[in-house]
Design brief:
The protein has 273 residues and is mostly helical. Helices cover 80% and strands 0% of the residues. This is Undecaprenyl-diphosphatase.
Length: 273
């Protein structure tokens, strides 16, 4: 009986990681889906160590996919700092914009993260915020921006950063909020997508560093080592393929698919709960 219980728990954690990883890159709120899955699978996970762990797996997938863009950005950023070489000024400027846009979410997370988790981590709230995410995606579904990396400005970057801060509420998609804000400001799909996932990198790294102590001091870590490993693996693999798929969706301009999905899931939850 104990063995069968353990196996079932392993399967549940693997499913949690798989779905979190798949929903992290796409605009349907991975945090909202994680809460919903815990509810329906009957798994109660205390603290943020699990969420940070699977988010770190998603981060690795993002780093692998964007490795060439990241290397170009970082090398150009530091080259400009050292030499003031004008040929890489756009890379420096883009990097500074990433830093500036990260600040709102960091500030909100530091001061209000526990309060947000307590106030908004409820099924009906997530249902409503999924509908809101769907509405935002619906409104920008036909937009085709013209602004490339070098066309964006500080004011726009701050607005995108504020959108990321709002997405700390479960059910509000982080990628959805930032991409919607960027496209509403006239950014091209490629620029909006790249900026959104570059924003994910410092947030995820920061959360991981801050949570290392909590993870290592988790009294259940030894017991949950295998389930956590399965969840991490599931998240890593599904994040990679989900982001690849989402990049194709963005190129084809089919964000309406995600709007319909958010409406359907949010509406269903409001109806049955």
């Amino acid at each position: 009986m104990e063995t069968s219980y353990d196996f079932l728990l392993w399967v549940k954690y693997f499913i949690l990681g798989l779905i979190q990883g798949f929903t992290e890159p796409i605009p349907v709120s991975s945090s909202g889906h994680l809460v919903l899955l815990q509810h329906f699978l009957g798994v109660e996970i205390e603290g943020l160590s699990f969420e940070v762990l699977v988010n770190f797996a998603s981060l690795l997938a993002v780093l692998v996919i964007y490795r060439k863009d990241l290397w170009k950005l970082l090398s150009g950023f530091f080259l400009y700092i050292r030499t003031r070489n004008q040929s890489v000024k756009d890379d420096f400027k883009f990097g500074m914009y990433i830093i500036v846009a990260t600040i709102p979410a960091v500030a909100v997370a530091l001061f209000f993260d526990d309060w947000i988790a307590e106030q908004f981590k409820h099924i009906r709230v997530i249902a409503v915020t999924l509908v809101i995410t769907g509405l935002a995606l619906w409104l920008i579904r036909n937009l085709r921006g013209w602004k490339k990396d070098h066309d964006i400005n500080l004011k726009e970057v701050i607005l995108v950063g504020l959108a990321q801060a709002v997405a700390l509420i479960p059910g509000i998609s982080r990628s959805g909020a930032t991409i919607v804000a960027a496209m509403a400001l006239g950014w091209r799909q490629e620029t909006a997508l790249r900026f959104s996932f570059f924003l994910f990198i410092p947030i995820s790294i920061g959360a991981g560093i801050l949570s290392i102590t909590d993870l290592l001091n988790d009294p259940q870590l030894g017991q949950l080592l295998l389930p956590y490993t399965l969840a991490f693996t599931g998240s890593l693999v599904s994040s990679y393929y989900s982001l690849k798929w989402f990049m194709n969706i963005m190129r084809s301009g089919k964000l309406i698919y995600f709007a319909v999905y958010c409406f359907a899931v949010g509406g269903f939850l409001l109806w049955v709960l």
